[in-house]
Amino acid sequence: MSDFIRANLPYLLAGISVGGQYALIAIGYTMVYGILRLINFAHGDIFTVAAYLMVYMNATMPLYISLPLTAVITVLLGFAVERVAYKPLRDAPRMSIMISAIGVSYLLQNLMWYVTGGLAKQYPVIPWISSSVTLLGATTKMVTLVTPVLTLVLVLLLTQLIRHTKIGMAMRAVSKDFETSKLMGIKINGVISVTFVIGSFLAAVGSMLYFSNYTAVTPTAGAMPGLKAFVAAVFGGIGSIPGAVIGAFIIGIAENIIKAMGLTTFSDAFTFALLIIILIFKPTGLFGEAVHEKV
Amino acid sequence: MAERVLELDRVTMQFGGVVAVDSLSMRVDRGEIVALIGPNGAGKTTAFNCITGVYTPTSGQVRYLGNLIISNRPQGRMKELYAGSDKAFPAETVVNTPDRITKMGIARTFQNIRLFKTQTVFENVLIATHLHKTSNLFTAAFRLNYREEQQMRRHALEMLEVVGLADLKDEKATSLPYGKQRRLEIARALATKPQLLLLDEPAAGMNPQETDDLGRFITGIKNQFGLTVFLIEHHMDLVMDISDRVYVIDFGKLIAHGVPEEVQDNPDVITAYLGVEEE
Amino acid sequence: MKTVKIILAALLILCAAVLVIAAESSKDKLPGLLERMDAQGAAAQDTKMQKAKDRVLDALAEGSREKVLRSLERYLDGWPDRLDTGGTVARELFVYRNRPSLTAAGLFLLLAGALLLGAVFDRTGKIRKAALPALLIGLLYAGVYILESVVGSGTMLITVLKKGAIYALVAVAMNLLNGFTGLFSLGQAGFMLIGAYTFAIFTIETQSRAQVYQYYDGGLVQFALPTLAALALAGAAAAFFAFLIGLPVLRLKSDYLAIATLGFAEIIRAVFQYDGLGPITNGSNLLRKYPTFDTVLFPFLVAGACVAFIALVIHSTYGRSFKAIRDDEVAAEAMGINLFRHKQLAFVISSFFAGVGGALLAMYQTTVQAAAFTSAMTYEILLIVVIGGMGSLTGSVMASFLFIAASEWWLRFLDNEQAIGSFQLPLMRSGFRMVVFSVIIMAVVLFYRRGIMGDKELSLKRIARRLSPRKGGGANG
């Protein structure tokens, strides 16, 4: 029995940990989708940019400066992307704005490639977070244990914000009915900016946790976790924050179970198979609401 | 007795807890013009959507020319939410998609005009001839169906002539004035070769003169194509002028039914339209 | 008159078929021919001649056309009476030597025949209208052929033309779906991968299989199909997968469709790299030693024929229904158009040609690996479609050549460090090209949303109207 635990616990822990990291990215997707009905394809790349910022800044600055600075710059980037690439297309067909998101993703990836020369960079070691710890005979990094806790704390804070503050109420209103909230005098652009700021901040935190674990940073390193986080958001019911978090944990754990079974090649494919299955049987996801089209 | 073209039996449409159409039963006979009226939000368009397969009614049946085309009873979550009495009615389940219902011979227009906006007037009508094609992808791609293609084009043009839009055939559909867009919608519906034509507020946004013309026009096409017409309308003059019978609904429920004169004097109808005075 | 044209068209197509088959099968006939020459001449007993012959056979096995021709030349030089070896032999050798040109010529005739047939059957008065563009396209192809023989096959210009033609096909296929039917699908790279692999797997020369599939005992498939058949099979395989995946995903709303097709492409990429399928797909290793093309005419003709077919579909009653679905699904359904069936049709056609495009890309690259067919590839093609204009075939074609030329050629200089005098230009180093390029694309997406053509097509009428001196006087300009 203890052998079994020792053999499989690392996978389970890794699953919970990576699930928490996906959850932090997934919230950015699900909030943006809830409000703009936009799959923000660039979100995964913002996540990667955060990692590069950390790599470069940590080389010249102490941690207590580089860490918050990374978060601030990432947030500014998310804000800027929305203002430059999505805001001008507010009245354009939905497909145009998604194409713009794809364009931003393409630009960010090429930009990162240019700056880094395409070589993989080593993510800096963050004291304590990156240190090893032994649990029930299984050795793992501290980050594995920190992630789920930190994720839950942040999600709790976020739900409080959405439930009890004025901006949170505005966000709920906008996601319910974009046009009407505009007529009711809600400053749509402000709400959207706040959404991107929150999403990018959580992506920056997620990036710190994720790359402490998978330390090689390449320009496309964020693409796959980004897509998976999006799948998690769809799985949980897009637009729903608890849904995204639960979806992310399920995907993170399932993916690591697949790895434990020795089918690593299929761990990515599995996520998408899961997506297709859920879309067939429950297109609104676990916690999504059905929408009736008006004819 | 005249042949029944359309028959609704206790059709109910419920969105969650909201009952949009409540146990509506009615019939339309061959050659008639029947109007469905009621205040805004009474559930008229929802009734149309239930007949044409856009929505599957929560319960009830729709028959067309004696055949059951739609039949459903409360299922799944709706079993608990269903507000009606008989949860076991009807026994059968028949579902048809809108395209199949159109193929059977029921064509419709839309209240909020839904033309193909990037297409020309002519193309809009031509698309509606697609459903009777016999060609497959390859014969169509390689123009081996040229005879049929020619027929489709001729038919589309004829329909445009019927509604008087033939000279505007190469204009973009959305560039037409409002009244003409409504006529184009009718031409498009006619191009599907229907037996029953459903018109959803065909006179919306028209002035009295245009409304008059429209009334004559509807009677005209009815006679010319041997149609049966079922329409939703707010212009009472038009309804009283052309309809053989009128159904009135309010909050999804049928409140009156009869020839125009009867309905006009019905106190319930007056209340529904003018509201009840406060005590 | 009509009958004459039909007969003429049939004859053209027949000739085309004979030419293509003869040219394509000439390689397989070569060993037999050599045997026959042996049997005829005393020189066959000569050991030097035997060696020369073996060299020809080796070169054949290796699959290098240039080597075969060189060794064949040397072998034939050894014959004192090289042209008296019998008429058939000389003819066959001629065919082998000129194989690409003959195939090209055959495809030309095929195109001509098809155009003629199209003209006969288009009874809506378009015969004369179609003749001029057809002639111009023919001239364009002739021009490209001459250009290639003048500047040489390996130059950047020809490379861009080759790759541009392939991208034109995949972009047009994607436009059929995204631009004409309004389905936001992101599975293009997956279908191209299926096409590329199907083609490669079924055309690798049997002699080379042991070498290519060295980790899998030579692989499972032990035969090779002719190139054109394999191209069709590549399309069919992609179309078949599209049919299957379409059953569930085409019922989804637009953005869910996008993410489901994207996911499907990722699954395909993983499956094709899976070790367990190695005997078929060679796992994550390269596939190589399958037929390639050396003349630019080949991708031009195949892609041209495919684009022509897509154009024919779009202008048929089916194409009109696709556009109706794009404009308003509810109204289209109310007009009796079966949404699912027509979406499926568009999806399957688009994927078929994405598969053919993938196969052409494999031929162009000479080697193929599943790992390269990433979602970034899909994004690139989508951006081409946007630049050309959603809903414009000619736009997609033009944008493809522009995109490839810009990314592979015109902006290359940005990747190199350059100095004016002693002043080192800043920023210019490896990777800068793609940054500039993506900025240009973003500018198009944001400020020039309709792309080059919008949803209009490039036609002679439009060009004539633009060029006419009475500019601005047109009633419907």
Description of the molecule:
The complex is a heterotrimer of chains A (295), B (279) and C (477). With 295 residues, chain A is mainly α. Helix content of chain A is 73%, strand content 4%. In chain A, the strands form two sheets. Chain A has a two-stranded antiparallel ribbon with strand order 1-4. In chain A, strands 2-3 form a two-stranded antiparallel sheet. In chain A, helix 1 runs antiparallel to helix 10, helix 9 packs across helix 10 and helix 10 packs across helix 11. Chain A starts with a helix and ends in a 14-residue tail after the last helix. Helices cover 37% and strands 24% of the residues of chain B. Chain B has eleven helices and ten strands. In chain B, the strands form two sheets. Chain B has a six-stranded mixed sheet with strand order 6-7-8-3-9-10, sandwiched between helices. A four-stranded antiparallel sheet of chain B has the order 2-1-4-5, covered by helices on one side. Chain B starts with a strand and ends in a 5-residue tail after the last helix. With 477 residues, chain C is an all-alpha fold. Chain C folds into three domains: 2-99, no CATH class; 152-412, ABC transporter involved in vitamin B12 uptake, BtuC (Orthogonal Bundle), CATH 1.10.3470; 414-467, no CATH class. Chain C contains 20 helices and two strands. In chain C, a hairpin with a 2-residue loop joins strand 1 (419-420) and strand 2. Chains in contact: A-B, A-C, B-C. The interface between A and C is large, with 47 and 49 residues.
